[in-house]
Amino acid sequence: MSSSSTEATTEASINTQSDIGFTCQFTAGLRHVEASMVDHPLLTDDLACHLAGAKALGLAEQELASLSAQQGPGKHLRVPARSRLLDDALKPPLQTLANTGSSCNVVALGAGMDTRPWRLRQTSSLSAVHWYDVDFPAIVELKRKLLARARAETGRNERTSEDATASSPAASSSSADASASALTPLLTTPVSPVTTPPGASTQDPDSSAACAQQSDSPPQQQGASIPQSSFPLLTASWTAVPHDLADGSLAAALEVAGFNSHLPTIWLAEAVLYYMPVAQAAGVLQMAASLSHPGSALLATCVDAELLQASRDLQAGHVFANLFQFEIDELLRDGLGQHWTVQRPPETTKVLAARLLGADCYVAEYGGAECMFTAVLTP
Question: How many Å apart are CA 279 and CA 287, to the nearest integer?
Fold first, then answer.
């Protein structure tokens, strides 16, 4: 089978065998549409369209058109708003860690087509971050190929023996202690209001077709250096971790990937936990806690009861029909256990976007909302 046939088969398997797999590309498509088609966008993401693919981009454009017709023009898409809110929650602790000269980990659970290691250009502190994207093996494989086609830099994720020595428990203990004291206080402080949204994307509004065309070009050879990268890597390292969160072996998968548990870790769970039964989500969060150095934190989202019911009521064949397994109150009651302490009551991303970003967001056509919360290790 030719290389191009293999790549087409991989992408098709994502889209037809797993609705969850397709939603990660749809999410990237929504970020692209927000960045390139909405006035005063909440974020800039020039890489998103390269990862979304033509089908997801088309669906995302249809979503904006439908919501504009139903709820009026000029509002923001709720999924990119969620991403922006998590961006803002992530930046202050990372900057404080950088100011102390410390390194840390960020582990994005169910990362999908997340682009933060390439797009958070205003966060200079990313240079001290070891970033791990965890997702299904097929999604990881597809993302790697799409990143290569987009000429996104990924090569610094290969650790050398010197890197391993430098990140050993003995070498990292002093910086980790400094990081622990720096991380927790900032996560208890509300994000400062943003009065001026970021500027518009540098992409042309009609760039979806160009991205789809580029996705058909031959990929760069895996592992080869990419000269004049279109999307430089902003983190100290980026590692893709092919792993099914449901199988209970997250610790082993991260160990193979070179994860250093002696550094503080920010666990990022954006739109992932509620796709699995609450007992499995609890197991993932318990495992994350066991791998966390003092000062680690959890940034997460979860649907509310209305959105959970809406998913159950959608007709068969809808991309979100019966995908969600539980809602925020169940997660707080049954999922966090004694390992994580929520800092303040969760709020919907629509409410947070209005208060912190001055942004009015569309609500889902089928109702409900997604909530966001931060938590720290329970002492």
Answer: 12
The Cα angle at residue 362 between residues 188 and 316, in degrees rounded to 5: 105
Please check whether residue 48 is in contact with residue 115, taking contact to mean a CB–CB distance below 8 angstroms.
yes
User: What stretch of H or E contains 227?
Assistant: none
Give me 177's structure tokens: 């202690």
Q: How far is CA 166 from the centre of its chain?
A: 28
Measure the CA–CA gap between 34 and 114, rounded to whole angstroms.
Answer: 15
Query: Which positions ≥6 away from 264 have C-beta within 8 Å?
Result: 97, 102, 104, 105, 176, 179, 180, 183, 292, 293, 294, 295, 296, 297
What does the block give as tokens for 234? 């902003």
Hey, what are 209's tokens?
């077709």
pLDDT band at 214 (very low <50, low <70, confident <90, very high): low
d(CA 200, CA 196): 12
Q: What pLDDT score does 208 carry?
A: 58
The predicted-structure confidence for 261-275, as pLDDT tens digits, reads as follows 999 999 999 999 999
**Rounded CA separation 297/374 (Å):** 7
Say which residue, 5 or 227, is predicted with more confidence.
Answer: 227
Nearest-Å Rg of the Cα atoms of the chain is 20
Residue pair 40/195 in contact (Cβ under 8 Å)? The answer is no
Q: What's 145-160 look like in SS3?
A: HHHHHCCECCHHHCCC
**Is 50 exceeded by the pLDDT of residue 294?**
yes
Quote the CA–CA distance of 41 and 77 in Å, as a whole number.
9
Structure token pair of residue 344 = 């303040």
Exposure string (b/e) for 108-140, b if CB count within 10 Å is 16 or more?
bbbbbbbbbbbbbeebebbebbbbbbbbbebbb
Question: Going by C-beta distance under 8 Å and a sequence separation of 6 or more, which residues neighbour residue 259?
Answer: 105, 107, 130, 132, 291
Q: Who has greater pLDDT, 98 or 64?
A: 64
Name the packing angle between helices 48-71 and 137-149 (round to 10°). 100
| Short-list 153, 219, 209, 226, CA closest to 2 | 219
Residue 19 structure tokens: 């609705």
Q: Is this prediction's pTM over 0.85? A: no
